[in-house]
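Listing S7. Sequence submitted for prediction.
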Amino acid sequence: MTAPTAAPGMLTEQELRSLVESGEIDTVVVAITDHLGRLQGKRCGARHFLDDVLAHGVEGCNYLLAVDVDNNTVDGYALSSWESGYGDLKMVPDLSTLRRLPWAPGSALVLCDIVTMEDEPIPMSPRQMLRQQLERLEKLGYRANAATELEFILFEDDFDTAQQLHYTDLTPSTQHNVDYSLLATSRIEPVIRDIRVGMEGAGMTVEAAKGECNLGQQEITFRYGPALRTADNHSVYKTGAKEIAAAHGQSLTFMAKFNEREGNSCHVHFSLTDLEGNPVSTGDREHGFSEVMEQMIAGQLACLEEFALFFAPNINSYKRFREGSFAPTAIAWGMDNRSCAVRVVGHGPSLRIEHRVGGGDVNPYTILAAIVAATCHGIENGLELEPMTQGSAYTTDAPRISTTLREARDRFRGAEKAKAAFGEDVVEHYAHAADIEIADFEAAVTDWERSRGFERL
């Protein structure tokens, strides 16, 4: 498979300077992806960006990697606290990510690496975590390509209305299962087309859009590419899709399980090349695999139990994992078998794995860092591949994926493979993020509790 070239919409520094000089670009969005997978940052005046930010970066409080979902500062993080004074970190633009934002008039965007004010890397930064694992993989003689397939649910209500309704009784954009339906999805084509066209204009290559099973559920897929670029594009797409939906007076959610119907997945297609870009998955082993393909799959299975926190980072994430739901429950692999956690698809140079565990709420950098780390573990230890699962993995005695965030957190916090791959400080940082999520959930009184207990108990 030949690596795709950069898509239109990406900008060089000189192109940005010309667009600023002509007045076509007046704003540069300077962004990072935080530990919760959200795009955060500042909108800078374009001339200030070129005169100052480009050379020196831009500062932000170090709680950007240490807050809860509501952006509250919380205790217990080594990186950021009142004791340390909540100091600054620096966002350093990576010009390889510079692009137009067609849905935001006069705007370009650049993604950043996060460092200390002394220019030292911050190991729990998601982008740094992925970079570290890709460097580890390259030392073994390989590079990673990936694509993330995100599902979302689109509603007729705008975001403000959805909040006022407490996210209940919303009107989904389709009223029945529209999986692969062209007629039903034509009704929402105006907003879906704007998302597709917007992402093309922001440097991505759209493959297809299709309806899914849940009411209002859609999926837009993009061409594969180098793993870091895929994570970058994922972050831009996820925020951009919400902004475009809002411009249409609508809203959408990527949460893993919005209701009791089908959840939103984030399937990750993943493959390796050698350092010259040649695919390395095929060979003379069983199923036409190479040795490294076997080790890659074996590594995923060996690490999934310990790395589950990066595939399912929230309380809600674990509600996807239901038998017969097209979300996996068994740590197993199979050929074109959607009941398995790892599904092998493609043939010849396109032979690859589809990792099916992640939901729409994942952080793209940490999920890919986990997949790359598991791959390295398999290669470094020469792991042998267990027999594939035939038939439904839901009914096998294969080990099971964690069923709660508490279980995944406990496994992750004590995981030797995770500590070896990411470092103890990173493991504790993300385990503590799970601590916060669990504590907030356990303190909340839910609609379910009121419904069951108000009168009947």
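Caption to Listing S7: primary sequence and predicted structure tokens for the chain studied. The radius of gyration is 22 Å. The mean pLDDT is 95.
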